[in-house]
């Protein structure tokens, strides 16, 4: 019997599924970046609510298997935040599906460009973003001070 298809739903950042996925993301980031001073940039619920953004959870059946958020920035671009796919679901299209929903939401919010930051020790994420048409850009905002990151951007115009 084939696995159930993935369904992506908008959720609150503090929903039980979102909380579990973000905790798993933070645990993985801590393992990949154990150096003192490396920090995980937080995301506040108001940044992904209303007409400022959205937080999305991917489900396969009743299991939450991935998440991602988008928030508007002051310059009119939108930033992807808290992208995560459970390790056993990587390579199955979950990340691609979440990115498609995020891109649609960014367009709905009026953004002309998507930007994001990921770590240099996350080759799976870097590959996903490159396959989705993102190109490397200079570090921006709070990421300028983090030496273990890469920033990417994609025009929505």
Please name the defining characteristics of this protein.
157 residues, alpha+beta, Aminopeptidase, 7-stranded mixed sheet, 3 helices, 26% helix, 31% strand, globular
TL;DR?
This protein has 157 residues and is α+β, with helices and mostly antiparallel strands.
Write the layout of secondary structure elements.
Elements: E1 6-11, H1 16-32, E2 53-60, E3 63-72, E4 78-85, H2 94-108, E5 113-119, H3 123-131, E6 135-137, E7 149-155
Parallel strand pairs: 4-5
Antiparallel strand pairs: 1-2, 2-3, 3-4, 5-7, 6-7
Strand content: 25-35%
Strand order of the largest sheet: 1-2-3-4-5-7-6
Mean pLDDT: 92
Number of helices: 3
Structural summary, described in words:
- The protein has 157 residues and is of the alpha+beta class.
- 26% of the residues lie in helices and 31% in strands.
- It has helices spanning 16-32, 94-108, 123-131; strands at 6-11, 53-60, 63-72, 78-85, 113-119, 135-137, 149-155.
- It has a 7-stranded mixed beta sheet with strand order 1-2-3-4-5-7-6, sandwiched between helices.
- It is globular, with a radius of gyration of 15 Å.
- The N and C termini lie far apart (41 Å).
- The model has no long low-confidence stretch (mean pLDDT 92).
């Amino acid at each position: 019997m084939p696995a159930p298809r993935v369904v992506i739903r908008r959720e609150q950042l503090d929903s039980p599924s979102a909380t579990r996925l973000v905790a798993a993301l933070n645990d993985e980031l801590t393992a990949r970046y154990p150096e003192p001073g490396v920090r995980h940039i937080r995301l506040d619920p108001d940044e992904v609510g209303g007409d400022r953004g959205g937080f999305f959870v991917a489900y396969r059946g009743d299991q939450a298997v991935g998440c991602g958020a988008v928030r508007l920035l002051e310059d009119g671009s939108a930033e992807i935040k808290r992208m995560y796919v459970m390790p056993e679901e990587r390579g199955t299209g979950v990340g691609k599906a979440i990115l498609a929903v995020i891109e649609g939401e960014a367009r709905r919010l009026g953004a002309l460009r998507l930007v994001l930051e990921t770590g240099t020790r996350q080759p799976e994420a870097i590959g996903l973003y490159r396959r989705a048409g993102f190109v490397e850009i200079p570090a921006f905002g709070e990421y300028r001070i983090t030496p273990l990151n890469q920033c990417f951007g994609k025009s929505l115009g």
